[in-house]
Amino acid sequence: MTSPSAAANAARTAPTSSAKRRKADAVVVSRSEIPEHSELEHLRRLAALVESSKDAINGADLNGIITSWNAGAEELYGYSAEEAIGRSIEMLTPLNAGGEAKALRAGLAEGKGVTGQQTVARHRDGSLIEVCLTLSPVFDAHGRVIGSSGIARNITETQQRRASAEHERDRLTFAQEIAHVGSVEVNLITGHRWWSDEYFRIHGLPVTPSPTEELWHSVLHPEDRERVQQVWQELESGGPPLKLIHRILRPSGEVRWVHTRAAAEHNDGVLVRLLETAVDITERKQAEEALERLAFQDPLTGLANRTLLTNCIELALKEAAGAGTQVGVLFLDVNRFKVVNDGLGHAAGDSLLVQLAARLRSAVRPLDTLARFAGDEFVIVCSGLGSDEAHDLAGRIAAEVQVPFDLLGQELFVSVSIGIALSSCGDTAESLLHQADAAMYFAKDAGKVDGVVFDESMLRRAEARLDIGSQLPRAIERGELEVYYQPILDVGSQAPVAFEALLRWKHPKHGLVSPCDFIPVAEETGLIVPIGGWVLVNALTQAQHWRSQVPGASALRIAVNLSARQLQDPGLFDTVAGAIARAGIDPSAVELEITESALMNDVESSMATLTRLRSLGVGLSVDDFGTGYSSLSYLRRFPVTTLKIDSSFVEGLDGRDVHAQPIVAAITMMAIALGMDVVAEGVETLNQLRELERLEVRSAQGYLWAEPMPAGKVAPWLSNRPQFPGGVLEGAGASRRAY
Question: Rounded to two decimals, what is the model's pTM?
Answer without folding.
Answer: 0.50
